[in-house]
Amino acid sequence: MVQSYLKHGPTQAFGLVCSASSNSLFDGKLAYVPALEDILVWDVKKGTMLSMWHETGHRDEVTCLVRSPKGDSYAVGYADGSVRLWDPSTGSVITTFNGHKKAVTALAFDQAGTRLASGSQDTEIILWDIVGEAGLYRLRGHRDQITAIHFLAIAEGQASTSTNTPGFLLTSSKDTFLKLWDLSTQHCVQTVVASHSEVWSTDVNHELDLIFTGSGEGELKAWKIDREALKDGLKETESGEVAKMIHPIASLPLSSKHRISQIQFHHTQPYLAVQSHDRSVEIFRIRSEEDVKKKHARRKKRAKEKAEQGKSKKVEGTGETTKESTSMEDNLVDYFQPHVIVRASGKIRSFDFASNDNNPKGVQLLTALASNAIEVYNVPPPSKSKEESPEATRTHSVDLPGHRTDVRSLCLSSDDQILASASNGSLKLWNMKTTQCIRTMECGYAVCSLFLPGDRHIAVGTKSGEILIYDIASSSLIETIQAHTATVWSMHIRADSQVLVSGSADKDVKFWEFEYKDASENSPQSGKLLSLVHTRTLKMSDDVLSVKFSPNNKLLAVSLLDSTVKIFYQDTLKFFLSLYGHKLPVLSMDISDDSKLIVTCSADKNVKIWGLDFGDCHKSIFAHEESVMQVAFEKDSHYFWTVGKDKLLKYWDGDKFQAIQKLDGHHNEIWALALSHHGNFVVTGSHDKSIRVWEKLDEPLFLEEEREKELEQLYDKGLVDSLNRDEHGVGAGIEGAPVSAAAEVAGVTKQTTETLMAGERIMEALVLADNEREVMREHEEAMSSLPEDDAMRMQPPPRNPVLAAYEMEPEAYVLHVVEKIPSTSLHDALLVLPFGKVVSLMVYLNLWAEKGWNITLVSRILFFLLKTHHHQIVANRIMRTTLMPLRKNLRAALQEQKDTISYNLAALQFIRRKNNSERIAMFYEEEDMDEEKVKARIAEGKKRKRITLKA
């Protein structure tokens, strides 16, 4: 019988506050931050996580995040080029858009929230129709990663060249260009060289007349948008030149000359924030025209006073000849005054102003740090006194639920209830049931850790050679033992819980016994304290990287920097075996519970399984693509786990030397591994600062099936990649490539395994329905030739079991299959159909139009097929017999829908008029007002006033 194993699956990831893969958003109370492939919602005041937006099976990390203007949805871009719309109230995906080939780097909603523009590393911009859940078109022209996108709406009442999608789109890219796109003609109308280096960030003010661009050289440039030129469109001036819509103004000086990674105007207040330094955000106060005029008047007055005093002839001259100008083009520095510099405690990944901030005490600013933390600062309003310079104060921070640096070591208590994770600077304890952080203690640069017998203490080995002993109950460090003079790479406790062994880079292996001693007077603890007493030392010829006792208490294995593993008798420390064969040092090893096998993993990417009887190498396995960091045997078995720098966790059979399962989920190298003492789960810790739990499921796993699945995935990926291969030259990131005007706009298509499967489902349904209709047609023809009293007339052919199960007619079944396909992938699924099946589908479109079934879907499919297969349809004379009745039926159905909508619209307008007349009558009765005043009152809406009730 084929051996089966039990499958392991990811259950949860924790230890993350905020990852550095994307920007973050803040609404004044809640912070929406990326956490690798998820979005976390934090209540910053309480420091609690309210929800996690997670889609099962999706592993690509979040790269971009933007809020809809209505606040009812969030658009999230991912590293695989997909964009998902999330509903914040339910934490579920509304729809998924697939169109980009690389990571999404910029997102923007239009003012109404009905269109979404996405920019990517593949240099293309795609416009999505959110209501219709479809891609409108793809814009090409940039030659490097898109860094920012902004919609520029044409004001109401102004002319537009098209009623389809009026407005303009402003985009910036790492190719140093700023481009303005006319969405009505779907072409670029102006290209501006914005900087000598990459343009990293762009923002537009509320009046939509001022653009700020930030470059890689730290230059903050301002540009003026000519609203009149936008309104008129592309027109030639008297000199024959095309009128420019974007004009340069000036540069704004900054306190630092680093790369400007983010620029943002406040949503309502007159503030501009610029991040050009790793740890600080510079905030400018935007002055009004009146303030600038007052400032100029004061400056003129001072110059005049100095001239009268006769202190300086130069000053006198400038006072008389200077022409004061209050226009922004001439005096950008006067309009934007440096206000406050917000300095965070770590490197800032992104920041965001609170979107609904009406606090009179100042403006709130969220900073998402690259060190897995978020902080909220209060920016005070400008003070009138000149003595006090305003300073930003930190009001909230969320940092306790995660490590600031890589998780370097993990260990589990003997009952698997508590997990300890150690990093450079902190040791944290986690409740494994709730995954909540229950203790945080400061420590040095931790390299290894383990629970001491009794599970009341934890020993941590550090880079400086110390062994730190922590008491869990009091969360305190009770003893620091200067055990070694160099890094303590490994510690292990003997199976009888009497001796601890430590191995270090100072070439010593030291043995320690446990001892309880009285607490000192200065210690916060009272009574007996656990301590370690040094008993023996084993001198080695090279640095010790790993030490391990055998479970039968007979042997001690020591791995050295010279790539060998030496095995000694642990009682006499007499040399027993030397295991050599690895090309690079052995980083970790483990001995099976029956003390028969030892498995070693090395920086040479190999895992070797050895017999402990004679030291013979049973098998050498090329296990990972990078260094194998840790290995551990499962309890009471020869199955073992390995983790590597290639971000993978692997499960192996140590007897058959086969890989059982490969688990991916981490986004950076995995440093640490801890196995449940009962064999129920595995915990891994990574450079991405997340801790993940992989639980054993009841589902059986067969190796042949797993290999077949892997091959299928490789085939599907290769097929999808070949279908999505694009030969266009525009925006391909190639220097000097010719820009083709015809390729500037294109359709939005991207084949995925889901769209291929959806296309296959449509084909299967068409084949099934066609066969059923053919059988029924043949039956009817046969019946028509038989006399009415013939017994054979009573026996129709058996129905297809699928149609019988659904109790559907063939045309209804095809519609049922097509309706099940998500709207976003329908067009890509239809592209899969060969022309023969397109002809077949046209017949069913006619039947659906005739019966009035889902006319919207019928119209959408028909127009797409006509556009895609126009040449074949025109050349195929048989199609005429299908298209003629289809035109007639579809027009009739569309006219009926139009009449229904017109009727409903008229009814709604009647209800509104009736409501308005009732309100006017009510106002006339209540107050003595004329009709105009009443109408104005109704138009502005009745605002509810807040009053104070007195007891």
Automatic annotation (TrEMBL):
Q: Name one GO molecular function term.
A: snoRNA binding
What are the Basic and acidic residues biased-composition ranges?
305-323, 384-401
**Sorted alphabetically, which keywords does the UniProt record give?**
Nucleus, Repeat, WD repeat
- Name a GO CC annotation attached to this entry: small-subunit processome
Q: Name one Pfam family in it.
A: Utp12
Region (Disordered) residue spans? 292-326, 379-401
Instruction: Name it.
Output: Small-subunit processome Utp12 domain-containing protein
WD repeat residue numbers:
55-96, 97-130, 168-191, 400-440, 481-522, 579-620, 621-653, 663-695
Q: Where in the cell is it found?
A: Nucleus, Nucleolus
Enumerate the spans annotated as Small-subunit processome Utp12 domain.
810-912
Instruction: Give the species this sequence originates from.
Output: Panaeolus cyanescens
Q: Which domain of life is it from?
A: Eukaryota
Q: Any keyword Repeat?
A: yes
Matches recorded under PANTHER family? WD REPEAT CONTAINING PROTEIN 3 WDR3 (PTHR19853), WD REPEAT-CONTAINING PROTEIN 3 (PTHR19853:SF0)
* Ranges of Basic residues composition bias in the record: 294-304
Which GO terms fall under biological process for this protein?
Answer: maturation of SSU-rRNA
Q: Does the keyword Protease apply?
A: no
Q: Which CDD domains match?
A: WD40 (cd00200)
Regarding protein family, the annotation reads: Belongs to the WD repeat WDR3/UTP12 family.
Q: What is its main location?
A: nucleus
